[in-house]
Write a structure and sequence with these properties.
heterodimer, A: about 350 residues, alpha/beta, five-stranded mixed β-sheet, 12 strands, about 45% helix, globular, B: about 425 residues, alpha+beta, Phosphorylase Kinase, domain 1, Transferase(Phosphotransferase), domain 1, Maf protein, 3 domains, seven-stranded mixed β-sheet, five-stranded antiparallel β-sheet, about 40% helix, elongated
C-alpha cells in the first residue's frame, strides 16, 4: 500500500454543473480509476436548478463512497481535489464547490477549480488520443466549436441562443416523449427520427461561424402543435436541419484552422446521425474523426479529475477564498499552459 | 462554365473558389459543391438560395457605397457565380503586419463600411477579416455575402457586429479591443451615436445569450427565420441574359431574389403566347424541380394583322429590325402592341399560374438606339405610346416603368410575395 502511494498520485474530481452529480478519480499518469454518475431526472419539465442542487447534495455521499470503492482507493490517498467551477447553474455549482472545499480542507490537499468545457476537451483527448483537434462540444447546455491557439482554446463557433441538446430536449418534451430511465430526451428524438422519411422545411440559420437554434425549435414546435406532420418526420427534419447547421460551422472551423482531427464530445455526441455527418466532413478534409466514449462524453467527474491533474502539474491551484463559482466562465477565458503550440 | 484553365485557389467549407479567364477577364468562379452530409433536397435549397442571393447583396452593397466584386454570371443550377477577381491583400494578413496607428485606421474604415451596409439594410452575415480585401488602389472590398440578408432589424445588426468581434477574438486576439473600438468609431460616424449605442446594447444581449444560461432564462427568445424560400426566391428559366437582368431589377423591388436557370425549354408552335408559356414552364420545372417562371413575349402589329405575334423572336433572328422596318415601309398605321406572359410553376401548383402585361405603342420609322442602354430584340423600333423615344433609347429603369415584361413581372411579384407571409 505504502509503495503504491509513492508511485501513483490521485486526483479526485467533482462535477456538478447541471443535472448530473459525478465523482471520478484519475491517476497523475492519466488512468481513469472510477467515474460514478448520478443523474437527476425530473418527473416532468426541465431542470430546476434548485431541485437539481438538492439532488446533488443528497446523492453526494453515496456517489463518493462508490467512487472510492470502485477505484480501490481511500480518501487519504488523494493528492488533489478538482471541481467544476463553471460555467453552469448556480445552485448546482455551489453544491459541488462546497463539497470540494470541505474535502480539500479535511484532507489538507490543494484545491483546483476547473472549467467544465476545458475538461470535456481534455478527457476527450485522453480517451481518443487526439492531439490538436477541432472540438465540437454539443450538450444540453453548450454548443461550441473550438480549437487551440496561443495558450487557449479559442471559440470559433457557438450557438447564439439555445444549446443543441436543449433544442432536442425541449422538442421531445413538447411532443410528450417520456424519458425512459437512463435515456435522455434527445435519444428519443433520435429513435423517432430513424423512422422519418419526409424532410419538412424548417429555418436553417447559420450566421458566420455561429448558429441560431431557437427559431428552428419554435418552428418545429408550432408544426408539431398543428399536427399536420408525422412526429417521425418532424424528429427527422429537426435533426437533419440542426445537425446540418452544426456540421457546416464545424467544417468552416476545420477549413479555417486546417487542423487534422475533429473531436466530437458532449451529451449529443452519442447521436449516430450527428456522428455520421461529422465523419463525412473529416473524410472530405482528410482529418481523423474522434468521438468520445459516452461515459466520458456526458458530464462526468473523471474529466474534472484528469484536467485537475494537468492543471495542478502546471502550477494551477485555487485557494479556498478564491474558489467561488463562475456561472458564465467562458472556455476562451481559460489559460491552458499544459497544451503546447502545435508544430504546424 | 468559363473557358480555359481553372485554378483552385481555396477550398472553403461553403464553396470552392477558382481563378480563371472568362472572355478575356480574370475572374473568380465560386462553386458551391454538394455537401453529402445533409439531405440532398436541403443541400440543393441551401446552395441555390445562397448562389442566387449573394449576387443580389453584392449589388446592394455596391449601391450602399461599399466596394464589392462585379458579378458576371449566376448559374443557379450549377450553384456557380462568376465574378470579378479582386487583386489585393486579405485584411486578415494585413492587420498583423502594420503599425498600431495604421491598424486603427484600417479598422475605422472597416467600421464605416459596415455602417454603410447597415444603413441600407444590408447584413453581411459573415464579417471576418478574411472576407475583406485591400485592393491595389487602396480600397477595402467586402466579399462573400453568401450568408447575408436584407433587413434593418436591430437583432440582426447586433449579430453582424458580434460576428465581427468574434472574428477578431479568434484570429486577432492580441489586439481585439483596440480594433473593435475603432470599428465602432467608424460605424457610429455613419449611423450616429444613438443607433450605434442601440446596436451595441443588442450585441451585448446576444453575447449573454449564447453562454451557459439557466434554462428558464432562454425561454421566450425570439424566433428568427432567415431561411424560407417560398415568396423570396424564384428561378427564371431563360437563356437571354438581357431578359434576366430586366427581371432581376423588377423583382428586386419586391425583395425577391432571382436566379437564372439555363435550361432548354420546349417552345410549342401556337398563336397564344400564354399557351406557349404554360407548356414551357412545366417543361422547365421538370428539369429543375425548383419554383420557376418563364416569360414569353410577342409583338403584335396592327397593320400586319398581329404579325409577328408569338414568332417575334424567330422573326428577329431571321430578318431582324431592318427586315421588320422594310415590311412596314410606306405603311401609315404603325400601331403595335408588345405582350408578355409570365408563367409560374412549382411543386405546389396543380397548373401554371400566368400573369400578363402589355404596352401599346408604334413602330418607329427607323432604327433608334443609344450606345450604352440595355435594349435588345425589337426594342430599337418600338416606341411606347406618348413617348418620343424607343425602348432602346431608354435606361433600364425607365423601360421597366413602361414595358410589358415589367408589368407582367410586377403582377407576378405582388402575388408571389404574399406566399411568403403564409405559414
Amino acid at each position: 500500500m505504502r509503495r503504491r502511494k509513492t508511485v501513483e498520485k490521485y486526483c479526485l474530481g467533482i462535477e456538478s454543473t447541471a443535472d448530473d452529480f459525478s465523482v471520478g478519480i484519475a491517476t497523475f499518469k492519466g488512468k481513469i480509476l472510477a467515474n460514478v454518475i448520478s443523474a437527476f431526472a425530473p418527473e416532468e419539465g426541465g431542470i430546476h436548478p434548485r431541485e437539481a442542487a438538492q439532488h446533488h447534495a443528497q446523492a453526494a455521499n453515496k456517489v463518493l463512497e462508490e467512487t472510492f470503492k470502485k477505484s480501490c482507493t481511500k480518501p487519504k490517498d488523494i493528492a488533489i481535489i478538482a471541481f467544476s467551477q463553471g460555467p453552469g447553474l448556480g445552485p448546482c455549482l455551489r453544491t459541488g464547490a462546497t463539497i470540494a472545499r470541505a474535502l480539500a480542507t479535511y484532507l489538507n490537499v490543494p484545491l483546483v477549480g476547473i472549467n467544465h468545457c476545458v475538461a470535456h476537451i481534455e478527457v476527450g483527448k485522453l480517451e481518443t488520443g487526439a492531439e490538436d483537434p477541432v472540438v465540437l462540444y454539443v450538450s444540453g447546455g453548450n454548443t461550441i466549436v473550438a480549437a487551440f491557439d496561443s495558450g487557449r482554446y479559442r471559440v470559433f463557433g457557438e450557438t447564439l441562443d439555445i444549446a443543441l441538446g436543449n433544442c432536442l430536449d425541449v422538442f421531445a418534451r413538447e411532443a410528450g416523449l417520456r424519458q425512459k430511465e437512463g435515456l435522455p430526451f434527445g435519444a428519443m428524438v433520435e429513435k423517432f427520427a430513424l423512422k422519418g422519411k419526409t424532410l419538412v422545411a424548417l429555418p436553417y440559420s447559420v450566421k458566420g461561424m455561429d448558429v441560431s437554434l431557437s427559431g428552428l425549435l419554435t418552428a418545429a414546435t408550432s408544426l408539431l402543435k398543428k399536427g399536420e406532420h408525422e412526429l417521425e418526420d418532424l424528429c427527422y427534419s429537426l435533426q437533419e436541419t440542426a445537425f446540418s447547421m452544426i456540421t457546416e460551422v464545424t467544417e468552416r472551423a476545420v477549413a479555417h484552422t486546417e487542423k487534422k482531427e475533429i473531436l466530437l464530445t458532449g451529451g449529443v455526441a452519442a447521436n449516430k446521425r450527428l456522428q455520421s455527418m461529422i465523419r463525412a466532413i473529416t473524410e472530405e478534409h482528410e482529418a481523423r474523426f474522434c468521438v468520445v466514449p459516452s461515459q466520458f462524453a456526458v458530464d462526468n467527474g473523471a474529466m474534472i479529475a484528469w484536467t485537475g491533474v494537468l492543471a495542478y502539474k502546471h502550477g494551477v491551484v485555487t485557494p479556498i477564498e478564491k474558489s467561488f463559482v463562475k456561472l458564465r466562465w467562458r472556455l476562451d477565458e481559460v489559460e491552458v499552459p499544459w497544451v503546447t503550440e502545435s508544430k504546424l | 462554365m468559363g473557358n480555359g484553365k481553372q485554378t483552385l485557389i481555396k477550398k472553403g467549407a461553403e464553396a470552392s473558389l477558382y481563378l480563371a479567364e472568362w472572355h478575356g477577364k480574370k475572374v473568380m468562379i465560386k462553386k458551391r459543391l454538394p455537401k453529402h452530409y445533409r439531405p440532398s433536397r436541403l443541400d440543393e435549397q441551401i446552395r441555390t438560395f445562397r448562389t442566387v442571393h449573394e449576387p443580389q447583396l453584392l449589388h446592394e452593397a455596391k449601391l450602399a457605397g461599399v466596394p464589392t466584386p462585379m458579378v458576371f454570371l449566376v448559374d443557379a443550377k450549377e450553384a456557380t457565380v462568376i465574378m470579378e477577381f479582386i487583386e489585393g491583400k486579405q485584411v486578415k494578413q494585413l492587420l498583423s503586419d502594420v503599425s498600431e496607428n495604421e491598424r486603427r485606421n484600417f479598422c475605422f474604415r472597416i467600421g464605416e463600411l459596415i455602417g454603410k451596409l447597415h444603413r441600407k439594410g444590408v447584413i453581411h452575415g459573415d464579417l471576418t477579416t478574411s472576407n475583406m480585401i485591400l485592393s491595389s488602389e487602396g480600397k477595402i472590398f467586402f466579399v462573400d455575402f453568401g450568408l447575408g440578408e436584407k433587413t434593418e432589424e436591430l437583432e440582426v445588426r447586433g449579430v453582424d457586429l458580434h460576428l465581427m468581434k468574434r472574428a477578431l477574438q479568434s484570429t486577432h486576439f492580441r489586439y481585439t479591443e483596440g480594433c473593435f473600438a475603432s470599428i465602432v468609431e467608424g460605424y457610429s460616424k455613419i449611423l450616429g451615436v444613438k443607433t450605434t449605442r442601440e446596436v451595441l446594447e443588442k450585441m451585448k444581449e446576444i453575447e449573454r445569450r449564447g453562454r451557459y444560461v439557466a434554462k428558464e432564462e432562454v425561454k421566450g427568445s425570439k424566433a428568427t427565420m432567415n431561411f424560407r424560400l417560398e415568396g423570396k426566391v424564384i428561378f427564371f428559366a431563360t437563356n437571354n441574359i438581357n431578359k434576366f437582368n430586366e427581371a432581376r431589377r423588377v423583382l428586386a423591388k419586391y425583395n425577391i431574389s432571382v436566379g437564372m436557370l439555363r435550361v432548354k425549354t420546349l417552345e410549342i408552335q401556337s398563336q397564344s403566347i400564354e399557351e406557349i408559356a404554360r407548356t414551357s414552364v412545366i417543361d422547365a420545372f421538370k428539369n429543375c424541380h425548383l419554383p420557376v417562371i418563364v416569360e414569353d413575349a410577342g409583338l403584335f402589329i396592327d397593320a400586319l394583322n398581329g404579325f409577328p405575334g408569338p414568332y417575334a423572336a424567330y422573326v428577329y433572328k431571321t430578318v431582324g429590325n431592318d427586315g421588320l422596318l422594310r415590311l412596314m415601309e410606306k405603311v401609315n398605321d404603325r400601331k403595335a402592341t408588345f405582350k408578355s406572359v409570365v408563367a409560374f410553376y412549382s411543386a405546389d401548383c396543380s397548373s401554371p399560374i400566368c400573369f400578363e402585361g402589355e404596352v401599346n405603342g408604334e413602330i418607329s420609322e427607323e432604327l433608334r438606339k443609344t450606345e450604352k442602354n440595355c435594349g435588345f430584340g425589337f426594342d430599337p423600333v418600338f416606341k411606347p405610346a406618348g413617348k418620343s423615344r424607343t425602348f432602346a433609347e431608354m435606361s433600364m429603369a425607365e423601360k421597366n416603368m413602361l414595358s410589358h415584361r415589367a408589368k407582367a413581372l410586377t403582377k407576378f411579384a405582388l402575388w408571389y410575395r404574399k406566399l411568403q407571409q403564409k405559414p
